[in-house]
Structures are given as structure tokens and as C-alpha cells.
Design goal:
This protein folds into 2 domains: about 30-265, 3-Layer(bba) Sandwich (YerB-like fold); about 275-405, YerB-like fold. The protein contains 5 helices and 26 strands. Helix content is about 15%, strand content about 25%. With about 400 residues, it is of the alpha+beta class.
Length: about 400
């Protein structure tokens, strides 16, 4: 497992320079096949999107089951999601970017280290984000292993700002990136990255009203670096997806949902295992700003999230982030993939993990045989696990990381 000693000052400098150069070259090296370039630096503020707020469906009965995580929503929300497909958004987790917008409205959240010990989220926005004020921020760049997971969602809308790509030597023109770091090239290979495609990237053919910068997103008194300012407006993204033909209807005449493999979810299935009301772990040793703690709240049957020793909240709702299920997925980590210090996690294959739900911990295994397959978690008897209804967090940790719980 990586530690602080992996990154002396010289290496850190190289990492920072590489990060900015890679971001700038993401589409210089792999153009969107003629897509129109729209500046990612378009500024916006909250007033640019009219809304009635996240509570617009609050007074309606919550009777309809979300097909992704089993949580109950209103008929109005179901009517909306049935016409759409999920948006998978990359959201950064630098300490200067907190609190983030939108994580509480995701159906599933994936977390893994993106670079230099800093974790990144990928939220799956479908059932819980059907409000006309729904937004996510700060949107950041793609990584190959997140793309490998995004493929499980049956050609979703993938929202991001650039990503890992082929960095070329200026003298020879040769690609100096490991192929396992080339998320941009992989999106093109999948057929997502093309003019009018489902790859929504601000460095290609997506700008306002879908993606725009808000330098005051954390308030007028907090100065933000540009990389912490990109906001994604989900209603506008779904409108654009509809224009491009990415609705619930698939090209073969089926629906998006018919081609999606859901996890098993049942509130009545008893939970077995050992007590786990306080769960703690670190991603990289010595990077304490990214250490996570989940505390079980029996009143709501959810785990409440803290990170870096502080309560983790959603900027929009002001509420502490929570999850009905927290899954540890151990994956092989390669932390110095190439000269650009790209990271890679092996999320295709199989491994072990831990499932936390209802105040209990259960040892599990996981399997994803190929890129387009769904990651399935199994109990010790080999049966597919059953999740409790509600938001699900998948924490991707390097093999060998210690998870403490009691």
C-alpha cells in the first residue's frame, strides 16, 4: 500500500505538473471526432438555473421502488426517471472542494483514490436526483477504473471534465502513458466519445447550461481555484441527453432498464455477521484528510459519514451524508503506472470485501469477469448478497488496507 514516502518533494512537483498538462492535453490528443469545442470556463451562478428546490416532491407519498437501490420515491419522480437513463458524474474530493453538491441525491456512490492520495467520487444519479434543482459539483476528470465501472450502467450519460489520456513525448511524439491510464481513449473505443455522444465532457462538446463554472459555489468569501468550480446541472444534462437520443429508449427497441442488471435488495432479509456500528479506514497511510469513518445510526438504519475528522455534508441539503449500505471492495492497486504517476485499480476480475448494513459486518467476495459485466458481491456461502434499500456506497481500497469496526 502506498505511503507518504512514495512522494518526495520532487515527485509531488512532477505529479502536479503532469496533472495540469494532462488535463490541458486531454482533447488535444484525442479530439471528439469533430465535436464542437465549448469553453469549460463559462461562468455561471445558482441563479442561472431556475428551480423550486429539492423539496418539490416532498409532500407526495413515497411508494415507488428505485430499481437501482430499492429506496422509495414518489410517482412523479418515477414518471421522470422512466423517461431517462442515469447520469454518472465524476466529483472531486480535494479538501478545498468540500462540501460537494449532489452526493446525497445519488443512488450509488463509488470512491477511490484518483491521484496523490486524493480520493474521487463517481455518483450514479437516477431515482434520487429527479428534482429540478439537482446539481453536482465540483465535476472533475475521468479515470479508467471509474469508466470500467460506468460500463455496468448500460450506456449512461457520463459527466466529467477531461481525464487520463495518452500523453506524448514532445520530441518523438510517442505516447508515454500506460494504456491502463487512458480513460479518454477507452471512452472513444466504447463509442461514447463522439459528436452527440453520451460522453458529456466540458473539454469537448458540452458547456452551459449543462456544465459551467461557479467561483462562488462555496460562498462569496471563499476563494476557489478554477479546478474546484465546475458545476453540473442535471436537469439540463437530461434535456441535452434527450436531444441526442439518450433517453430510456435503447436503439434496439428495448428500454434502458431492461438492459440493466440490478443488485438484489430486500428490507426483510435478516442481516448476519459481527457488530459494526463504528467503521474506520484510510485509503493511503498518512493522508488523514481522506480517512473515512461511518457511524451507524439505529434510528434511521443508516451509516453517517465523516472524513478527515469532520462531518461530511452535502452543500445543497446541509445534511450529513449517509448510506444504508457501505461496501468495501478490495482491488489491486498500481500506484506508479507510468512516468506520469498514473494510478490504476483492478476492478475487473475478482476479490474480497466487507459489507456493512444494519449495524453488522459481513465478509464478502466480488466478481466482474469483463468490462461490460455487473460487479456482483457474494456472501461466504457463494450466494449473491442482498442489500438494504437506500443509498449504497462502494469504497474501493487497495488490497491490504485495514478496516477497523466494532
Amino acid at each position: 500500500m502506498p505511503s507518504a514516502k512514495h512522494f518526495p518533494l520532487k515527485t509531488i512537483i512532477v505529479l502536479v505538473v503532469t496533472f495540469f498538462v494532462s488535463g490541458g492535453l486531454a482533447y488535444a490528443t484525442v479530439p471528439a471526432s469533430g465535436g464542437v469545442l465549448i469553453s469549460p470556463k463559462t461562468e455561471t451562478t445558482d441563479t442561472a438555473v431556475k428551480s423550486t428546490g429539492f423539496g418539490q416532491f416532498a409532500n407526495e407519498p413515497q411508494t415507488e421502488v428505485c430499481p437501482i437501490n430499492g429506496k422509495l420515491y414518489s410517482k412523479s419522480e418515477e414518471a421522470l426517471w422512466q423517461t431517462r437513463r442515469p447520469i454518472l458524474a465524476m466529483i472531486e474530493n480535494h479538501i478545498d472542494a468540500r462540501p460537494q453538491s449532489g452526493l446525497s441525491s445519488a443512488d450509488v456512490v463509488y470512491e477511490a483514490v484518483a491521484e496523490g492520495g486524493i480520493t474521487r467520487f463517481m455518483g450514479v444519479f437516477y431515482c434520487g436526483a429527479q428534482a429540478d434543482a439537482a446539481k453536482v459539483a465540483p465535476v472533475r476528470s475521468a479515470r479508467m477504473y471509474f469508466v470500467d465501472i460506468a460500463t455496468e450502467y448500460n450506456t449512461p450519460v457520463y459527466l466529467h471534465v477531461g481525464g487520463g489520456n495518452c500523453s506524448r513525448d514532445q520530441a518523438s511524439g510517442q505516447c508515454t502513458s500506460d494504456p491502463r491510464a487512458m480513460a479518454i481513449e477507452e471512452l472513444a473505443r466504447l463509442g461514447w466519445r463522439k459528436p452527440g455522444g453520451n460522453d458529456f465532457d466540458s473539454t469537448a462538446d458540452i458547456g452551459m447550461p449543462v456544465l459551467g463554472r461557479d467561483y462562488n459555489r462555496l460562498g462569496p468569501d471563499k476563494v476557489l481555484a478554477t479546478e474546484h468550480t465546475m458545476v453540473g446541472y442535471l436537469p439540463a444534462a437530461w434535456n441535452e441527453a434527450q436531444k441526442r437520443g439518450y433517453t430510456s429508449a435503447m436503439p434496439n427497441g428495448t428500454t434502458w432498464l431492461s438492459g440493466f442488471k440490478p443488485w438484489k435488495i430486500d428490507a426483510t432479509v435478516p442481516t448476519t455477521g459481527t457488530a459494526a456500528t463504528d467503521v474506520k479506514f484510510e485509503f493511503w497511510k498518512g493522508y488523514t484528510d481522506f480517512d473515512v469513518e461511518w457511524k451507524y445510526d439505529a434510528a434511521t438504519s443508516t451509516y453517517l459519514r465523516s472524513q478527515g475528522g469532520a462531518i461530511a455534508t452535502d452543500l445543497e441539503t446541509k445534511q450529513q451524508l449517509s448510506a444504508s449500505d457501505v461496501v468495501i471492495e478490495y482491488a489491486k492497486e498500481i500506484d506508479d503506472l507510468d512516468e506520469h504517476l498514473h494510478l490504476f485499480y483492478g476492478v475487473i476480475g475478482n476479490g474480497t470485501g466487507i459489507l456493512f448494513r444494519n449495524g453488522q459486518a459481513e465478509q464478502v467476495t466480488w466478481k466482474k469477469a469483463k468490462e461490460m459485466d455487473r460487479t456482483i458481491f457474494y456472501d461466504q456461502s457463494g450466494k449473491e448478497v442482498t442489500f438494504a434499500p437506500g443509498q449504497i456506497w462502494v469504497e474501493i481500497l487497495p488490497i491490504g488496507d485495514k478496516v477497523e469496526y466494532n
